């Protein structure tokens, strides 16, 4: 089965299980949430193992036991041993309903996401274009870019909340049921993965998850950073699905290039920069995409990658 079909089937089959977890967590019904979350975790891990062709029979049908079977196929599952034991504890656990639901979200996150690799659809870490492999990119909206330039840093969603820069919930946590920890990180991708960054930016702009980018698409502002610098930061992490994560913040001092969809958007962002020195430095690395490439995400990404190649001498 094609991975996309497998994923849709998994979401359909798990619908009631996941909904039971979300509803009981919202109601703060810890015991009901614990029972529902354990059942859902067993389902997601079984689905992953089926996709991996794992026929192992286990006498102990526990979340921890199935997780260890998954670890044999993919080391990233080893990160979730504490969550597995929490879910196995069930009603004996002293965790809150919210924490129980989040443990289930961690299991679901990897079981569905990493199945792409065992289904022969390795989209998680596609190889970057060789001449751009040294770069990582963060895509954001025109409005957020102005705030980023004013703060001279990229902040995680939770850091933005602490500073009063944003409100509400991050798109992934609200619509994709991502674990809460994702809101503690700034995310980056490889530069030729055209859909992911544009999806995130357009979803943030619209306030709802835009998977297809077919309705009212507007190009993002693309901020490029050296991959080696990102990976050397003390808050760097890679969770198996997000390509590059950095906890809390990343300074614009590390940025090598930015591409804006319009000159007005570029000028608005540069107008927020606090000091002449910073403004001069950022002005030198800010580019504007030609308007003819801005109609769809693939052409926008392709052309802006070419601009960055020329600018950065890659």
Summarize the structure.
Helix content is 50%, strand content 11%. It has 314 residues and is an alpha+beta fold.
The total number of structural domains is 2
Which stretches are poorly predicted, pLDDT < 50 over at least 5 residues?
Answer: none
Spatial strand sequence of the major β-sheet: 1-4-8-9
| Cα-to-Cα separation, first versus last residue | 39 Å
Which descriptor suits the 3D outline? elongated
Query: Which H/E pattern describes the elements?
Result: HHHHHHEHEHHEHEHEEEEHHEH
Q: How large, in whole angstroms, is the Cα Rg?
A: 21 Å
Strand content: 5-15%
Number of helices: 14
Structural class: alpha+beta
Q: Helicity, in percent?
A: 40-55%
Q: What number is the mean pLDDT?
A: 90
What's the number of extended β-strand segments? 9
Biggest sheet layout: 4 strands, mixed
Structure description:
It contains 14 helices and nine strands. A four-stranded mixed sheet has the order 1-4-8-9. The protein has a three-stranded antiparallel sheet with strand order 3-6-5. A two-stranded antiparallel sheet has the order 2-7. The protein is α+β, with helices and mostly antiparallel strands and 314 residues long. The chain has helices at residues 3-26, 30-51, 63-71, 81-89, 97-113, 115-118, 142-151, 157-162, 171-175, 194-206, 227-232, 263-270, 276-284, 297-312, and strands at residues 135-140, 153-155, 185-188, 221-226, 236-237, 244-247, 249-251, 257-260, 286-288. The model has no long low-confidence stretch (mean pLDDT 90). It is elongated, with a radius of gyration of 21 Å. The protein folds into two domains: 3-118, Up-down Bundle (Four Helix Bundle (Hemerythrin (Met), subunit A)), CATH 1.20.120; 130-312, no CATH class. A hairpin with a 6-residue loop joins strand 5 and strand 6.
